[in-house]
Amino acid sequence: MSQQIEINIPELLRKGLLFWILIGILVIAGLISSIYTVQAESQGVVLRFGSYLTTVDPGLRFKLPFGIDKVYVLPVKRQLKQEYGFGTPGGTNESQFTESRTRTREKSMLTGDLNAAEVEWIVQYRISDPELFLFKVMNPEGTLRNISESVMRTVVGDRTVDEVITIGRQEIEDEARKQMKNQVDIYKLGIIIDQIQLQNVNPPPPVQASFNEVNQAQQERERMINEANGEYNKEVPRSRGVADQKIQAAEGYALKRVNEALGDVALFNAIFEEYEKAPEVTKTRLYWESMKQVLPTMGRKIILDEDASQILPLLQLNQNENGGVR
């Protein structure tokens, strides 16, 4: 076998087959190393001899082989996130969270009223400029973590513990996002901050029970205030409605009395005008009209002439239905 090998190798060299085999291997290797793919949500940054050349969009691409061109593919359309004070298992981003031993330090903060609080939050961001992200700062995602922690401690330190834990969460998120955006633009990290979300915000475990009692007392106070406001909103409109009803009734009665008085005045004036025209006739008519109204209310009546000396019993036999004598 060794003798055949010594004879065959020189023959291959003389015929040039080994050279062409090597050339073929180099060509195949060059073709393989010159083809690459950029995923749909990414962009590729091409370097030539270590210097930035261009940024390419998704698709099948070609580059110079054998390390002349080097490509970094970055997920520019994917929303990335960093977690502070906690870590979600299964994260694919290397800078998504830190080691468990450093998370307690990350979330431990001092508020503006010198109270301690444990603040957990998330920063959601995207890569906006691949060239800046790769070459402007050595570790842009690590720098982002430092910026985020510094900004959050500043924002929390300007507020009371009640604001941090309860009513001021939205304001803290907006202010932290604004300050982080300014810092990222200053350092030119090639990153856009999309959103900051506060997660669990609690007092330290030693004082959490006392804080919960205070929080329950405040909630009870708010509940009682709301109930009182509800009773106020129910009783006051009802009282106002009753008052308005009485006022309207009084105004209606006053209008009625005024109209009746005006009618009486008008009637009196009309009668007086007729009286002036014929005083005796008017006087007699008024007398009989008055008697017509008075006599039916008098019950049993006996009408005598002025010269009558006695009353005959027979007069009592001729009674009408009202008990009077005709």
Major sheet size, sense and barrel closure: 4 strands, antiparallel
CATH topology of the domain at 80-203: Tetrahydropterin Synthase, Chain A
Record field, number of beta strands: 9
What portion of residues is helical? 40-55%
Whole-number average pLDDT? Answer: 83
Shape: elongated
Q: What's the CATH C level of the domain at 80-203?
A: Alpha Beta
Per CATH, the architecture of the domain at 80-203 is 2-Layer Sandwich
Q: From the helix content, strand content and strand pairing, which structural class follows?
A: alpha+beta
What amount of the residues lies in strands?
A: 15-25%
Poorly predicted tracts of residues: 1-7, 314-318
What's the Cα radius of gyration? 54 Å
Tally of alpha and pi helices: 9
Oligomeric nature of the chains: single chain
Order of helices and strands: HHEEEEEEHEEHHHHEHH
First-last Cα distance:
173 Å
